[in-house]
Write a structure and sequence with these properties.
Belongs to the glucosamine/galactosamine-6-phosphate isomerase family. 6-phosphogluconolactonase subfamily. Helix content is 29%, strand content 20%. By secondary structure, the protein is α/β, with parallel strands linked by helices. The chain has one domain: Rossmann fold, CATH 3.40.50. Strand 2, helix 2 and strand 3 form a beta-alpha-beta unit.
Length: 234
């Protein structure tokens, strides 16, 4: 496994931002665009704020969302609102490069189909979207994106993007499916917080139970882990 550990969260966030810039430079040396699938949460928010101050070719970077809440884009729980405030607006990213989920609160299935259609248009001819980078978090229940334990989206193998009913929230979320995540050339998990320790130990264990620990669905990822989240040695 490819694991990088940090003693302090700011070190992790700075390292991810630096690695992001290096990956953008390397990718754009051989192609015209860089496509990234974003994660929500407090850990990536600070990374986005750091990136907003970097001198990057923003007109060549295209931003997509790995998951979203079923709330309007101006809602405080919206991942789109968070990313716009932390990164896209401060960096003056062109609107043509920002590809948010078209949330339809009363018809999440239609919204998911619309976003999947957009992805299939942007990644035409590909069996699954070939992201240059997929940023991922993990919850204390081992979910990633909005692939929550015991939910229907875990079993999806044909679709790229779906609506997913999450019983514990009594609400729909939107999410990339496992095949659409695994198609990324780079997949980076950003893990911090003592409350993630037990989940991480289960995800990294030899026992494979992706229906219970959905982060196990992601293959070949790099893990950026703060020391407070590292499983204790037995």
């Amino acid at each position: 496994m490819n694991i990088e550990t940090f003693t302090e969260l700011p070190q992790l966030q700075l390292a991810v931002a630096d690695s992001f810039c290096e990956l953008v430079d390397a990718t754009l040396s051989s192609q015209d665009a860089f496509r990234v699938s974003l994660s929500g949460g407090s850990t990536p928010k600070r990374i986005y704020e750091i990136l907003a101050d970097r001198d990057l070719p923003w007109d060549q970077i295209h931003f997509y969302w790995g998951d979203e809440r079923n709330v309007p884009h101006d809602h405080d729980e919206s991942n789109a609102k968070m990313v716009r405030g932390a990164l896209l607006t401060p960096a003056d990213v062109p609107e043509t490069n920002i590809h948010t989920v078209p949330v339809k609160v009363d018809d999440p299935a239609a919204a998911a189909r619309e976003y999947e259609a957009l992805l299939r248009e942007h990644f035409a001819g590909q069996a699954a979207p070939q992201w240059d980078l997929v940023l991922l978090g993990m919850g204390d229940d081992a979910h990633t994106a909005s692939l929550f334990p015991g939910t229907q989206a875990i079993e999806e193998t044909d679709r790229w993007f779906v609506e997913n009913f999450v019983k514990k929230f009594d609400a729909y979320r939107y999410t990339l499916t496992a095949p659409a995540i695994n198609s990324g050339r780079e997949k980076w998990f950003l893990i911090a917080g003592e409350n993630k320790r037990d989940a991480l130990a289960k995800v990294w264990s030899d026992t494979r139970l992706p229906n219970e620990y959905p982060s196990q669905l992601v293959e070949g990822a790099k893990w950026f882990v703060n020391s407070d989240a590292m499983p204790k040695q037995s």
